[in-house]
Amino acid sequence: MANLNVDSVKQRTFDAIVVGSGISGGWAAKEFTEKGLKTLVLERGRDVKHLKDYPTTNLMPYEFEHRGELTREIKEKNPVVSRCYAFREDAMHFFVKDEEQPYVQEKPFDWIRGQQVGGKSLLWARQTQRWSDLDFEGPARDGFAVDWPIRYKDLAPWYSYVEKFAGISGNADGLEELPDGDFLPAFPLNSVEDYFKKQLKTQYGNRHVISARCAHLSKPNQIHLDQGRAQCQNRVLCQRGCPFGGYFSSNASTLPWAERTGNLTLQPHAVVQEVIYDEKAARATGVRVIHAQTKDVTEYYAPVIFVNASAFSTNQILLNSTSHRFPNGLGNDNGLLGKYVAFHNYRARISAEYEGFQEYATDGRNPAGGGYIPRFRNLHQQETDFLRGYAAGFRADRSKVEDKSGFGAELKKQLLNPTWGTWKVGSHMMGETIPKEESRLSLSKNQKDAWGIPLLNISLDYDANDDKMVADYHAQLEEMFTKAGFTNIQKTDSKQAPGLDIHEMGGVRMGHDPKTSLLNKYNQLHACPNVYVTDGACMTSTSTQNPSLTYMALTARAVDHAVRERKKQNI
Amino acid sequence: MKRRAAVKGLLIFTGGLVLLPSCMLERDKASVQLKHLEVSGDDEKMLAELVETLIPTTDTAGAKTLGLHKFTLKMVDEVYGEEDQRAFQDGMAAFQKQTKKQTGSTFAECTPPQRQEVVAAVNAGNAAPEVLAFYKIVKDQTILGYLNSELVMTKLRKYELVPSRYLAYYPVKAAKVTSNG
Fold it and tell me: Which InterPro entries match (chain B) (predicted)?
C-alpha cells in the first residue's frame, strides 16, 4: 500500500507544472519541454487537436444552418459572449457560454473566455506589436501604478526569440515608439491605406500608418515548416482554427512542438482549484485539480509552477490559494493581489468614404486586416489633458455592391452582376487605461461555481481619463480624415463595457518592490519565488499594443530564468 | 393537436422512421418546423410564390426551387427578435388580405403577371406599413439566402474558401465577379 502511494505520488510529480494552455501557457510548455523538463500542462477545457478538432474549418457559408448568424435562443441565453465579434455560428464552440461559468459583475464587465486546449490563441485577432521604452517608462514618467521592473532592452532579445518561432509578418518601419522585430514579409497596404499613410506623413510628420504586424506566415521559414505549418492562404477564417497552421496558435505551434520532445503531459478537463503551499518547506509544492466532469480531486507536484490561466482566472486561482502563511491568497502579503487591473478602451470608432482610387480595388483577403497607427499622443511628453494615449487600427475596403432596389429578373441580374462601390475607410481606437487600486478582483464570499470555487467579483470601469481620450480620438481622427479628403465621416462611441476588448490585464503586477507589487522582474512571486505568472495578470500597465506578443516574450524569458534558477538550486 | 400527437405516436411506433408522406402533413401547417411563428400551409404557398416573384427561375434556378421561402421562415423563426417576428406575422396576414382585395384571389392562385403587379406596388412602397415591414424581411432574407446559396457560391459568383492571395492594388478593369466582397 505504501509503495502504491509512493508510485502514485511519483506519477503525479513533474519537473514543471503549467496552468493553462493558451498563448502564454503554450510557450511555457514549449520552453520547459525543450529544455528537457518533464512538464504537466493543465487545461480546464476539452482537448482541441490541430486539424482534427476544427469542425467548421472547411465549411462553405451555405453549410451553416443560419449562414453564420446566431440564433435568438443562443443570444438570449448568452448575452455577454454574444457581444463578442467572433462569437458567431462558425466559432461559437470555442467560447465559454455565459451560464457555464458565472461571475459577479460588480460593475458591467464582458468576460470573454475560450477554455479549451489552446485557449483564446485559437480565436485571437493575431496583432503583434512590440512595446518600447515609451511604454515601459509610462507609469514612472506619468506617476501612476508602479514602475515596470524591466525595460525594452530586457525583453528585446525575447521578442526576437518568440517572433522567429511564431512567425510575425511586418515591415521594418524604423519607429522609436514601435520597435522593429524579426519579421516575415508584411502584408501590403492597399491604395487608400497607402494614400492615408502619405497624407499623415505630409500633414503631421509624426503620425504613421504601417502595415499591421500580425502572427501570420506570409512566407514561412524552415522553423515554421518544421512545426508542420504552411503559408497563410488568406482565408481569414482564423477563428475556426486553421488547417494550414497559417496563423500562430498553441494548437498549431507550441503544443505539438512540446509534445514531440516526449516531455509533455497534457491534461484537459483539469480545473485548478489552488496552488498548494507547504508551510514547512516555505514553498509551493503543486496544484490541486478538480476534474471538470467527474469532479475527482487530484494533486500534482512540481518544483516550479507557472500560472497562465488567463489574466483574471490567474487572479482567481491565486486568491483562492490560501494557507496559514498566505491567508489572503498566494504571495499576497501587501493586499494588492487582484488590484490595479485594467484593460484597453475600444469604445470609439470612426468611418468615412473616399472618392479617389476608382481604378483600384483589392483581390483576395488581407490577414493583417490593414493598417496600424501607433500611439502619437503624449509620446515624449505630456501634451493633453488626459494621461497616455491610444493606437488605432485603420483599414480601407472597397467591395462590390448589388443594386437591390428592384425585383424579378432584373433583381436577379443585379445580384449576379454587382459593381464596385466607393472606398470605405474605418478606424477603431485602442486606448491605454490607467490601473487603479479601486479597479479590482475579489472572491465572492457566498457564491461558488459548479466546482465549489468562489466566483470572481469584477469591479472595473471607465473613468474621466478614458472619456477624454475617446473625445480626443474622435477629434484627431476626424481631423486626419478631413485633411485626407475623406467624406461622410461618422463617429461612434459604443459605450461597450470593459472586457469586450479581451485585453484585461493586471492584478498580479510586476514591480521592483514587494511592498507595492506581486511579481519581480522575472515574473516570480516575490513571496513565493517558485511560482511564476506570465499571462496578462502580470501586467503593470497596459499601454496600447495588443498584448499577446509581450506575454509570449515574458514567458520564454521567465522559463529561461526558472530553469537557470533550478540549476543553481535557488528555487 | 390530437392529430399531431397521433402522428408523433406513429413515428415512435415505427421506430422513429422519419419518412412522413405529404398526405400526412397537416394541411393547415407549414412544412418547416417553427417555434415562434404561426404559418399555415397557405401562407407557405404564398411565400414560395413571393420569393419566386422576387428572384424568378430564368436560365438558372429561382428562389422557390432553392427553397428560400423555407429558409426565410427558418431565419425569421430562429434568428429574428420578437418584435420583428410580430411584424412578420402581422404583415403576412395584411399582405394576404391586401392581395385578396386587390386581385380577388390568394397570391398563390394569382397568375404570374398578377403577382408581379402586386409586388411592383409593394416594392415601390405603395402599401400599408405592416405590409412593407413584412415585405422587407422577406426580400432581405431571400437575397441573403440566394447570395449564400450553393448554386450562386459555386457556379454563378464563386466564393473562394482559400483565396491564397491578397492583391493590394488590384486594377478594377480586370475584376471578375466573386462572392468574396
Answer: Gluconate_2DH_su3
CB B60 within 8 A of CB B151: yes
Structural domain includes residue B164: no
Q: Are residues B38 and B21 in the same domain?
A: no
Q: How many folded domains does chain B comprise?
A: 2
Banded model confidence at residue A5, pLDDT cuts 50, 70, 90? confident
Residues 6+ apart with CB under 8 A from A211: A169, A170, A171, A186, A187, A188, A189, A368, A371, A372
- Residue A561, min C-alpha distance to chain B (Å): 41
> Is the CB of A72 inside 8 Å of chain B's CB atoms?
yes
Chain A residues with CB under 8 Å of B172 CB are 358-361, 420
| Shared domain check, B36 and B7 | no
Q: Is A410 on the interface with B (CB under 8 A)?
A: no
Nearest CB to B153; choose among A61, A65, A412: A61
A15-169+213-344+434-460+498-571 — its CATH code? 3.50.50.60
Q: Give the residue on B whose Cα is nearest the Cα of A397.
A: B181
Domain that includes residue B112, residue range:
31-157
| B180 within some domain | no
Could you tell me if A417 lies within 8 Å of chain B, comparing CB atoms? yes
pLDDT in tens, A209-265: 999 999 999 999 999 999 999 999 999 999 999 999 999 999 999 999 999 999 999
Question: Which pTM does this prediction carry?
Answer: 0.94
Other C-beta atoms closer than 10 Å to the C-beta of B90 total 14
CB contact under 8 A, B75 and A191: no
